[in-house]
Amino acid sequence: MPRFMVFVRATPSSEGAAEPTPEILSAVGTYNASLLAAGVLLAGEGLVPSSRDSVRITPGASPKVEEGPFPTNELVSGWWILKVKDVQEAVEWARKCPEGCGVLEVRRIAEMEDFGEALGEEGRKREAEMREQMEKLARGE
Question: How many domains does the chain have?
Fold first, then answer.
C-alpha cells in the first residue's frame, strides 16, 4: 500500500511568536487520534517556527549556510505520513484536517519500484537493508 506525505504549509500565524491556541491543538489531537484509530497514520510532527533552530544549506562548491527565519511561502510547519490505498484516500483524510492548520499538500512517497532499473540490484539491496535498520531504530532495537 502506498505512503503519502501530507505537508502543512506555514502561515504567518505558524511562523509568529504566538503559540497555537488550545482549541487548534485539541482539534489536531482529535484528528491525529482519528488517523491512528483508522490505522493510516505512520508518523506526524509539527515544526517550530523557522526563527528557532532552523538552518538552510544551499549545496555547491562552497555550500551556503543561512539561519532562519525564512519567508513563510517557502516553509512547511508540519507533516503526516499516511499509508492508504491511493491518492484519493490520502486527499479524503487531508480534507478532514481541522480548520486553522493552513494549506495542505499531499504527495506520494517514492518507493524503490518508482526508480525502475536505474537503482539496480545492488541499490535495491542497499535500500532494503537501510529500511530494515531504520525500522529497528524506530522500534528502539
Answer: 2
Residue with cell 529497528: 136
Q: What CATH code is carried by the domain that includes residue 15?
A: 3.30.70.1060
> Nearest 5°: phi and psi at 33?
-60, -35
For 132, the domain range is 114-141
User: Do both 103 and 132 map to the same domain?
Assistant: no
**Residues 48 and 87 reside in one and the same domain:** yes
- Claim: this prediction has a pTM higher than 0.70: yes
In terms of domains, do 48 and 100 share one?
Answer: yes
pLDDT of residue 17: 76
Which amino acid type is present at position 140?
G
Nearest alpha carbon to residue 104 among 1, 6, 4: 6
Candidates 77, 91, 119, 132; CA nearest to 2 is 91
Query: Model confidence over 73-84: pLDDT tens digits?
Result: 889 999 999 999
Give the CA-trace dihedral at 9, 15, 20, 24, to 10 degrees. -20
The span from the CA of 69 to the CA of 8, in Å, is 17
| DSSP helix/strand/coil, 19 | coil
d(CA 126, CA 112): 11
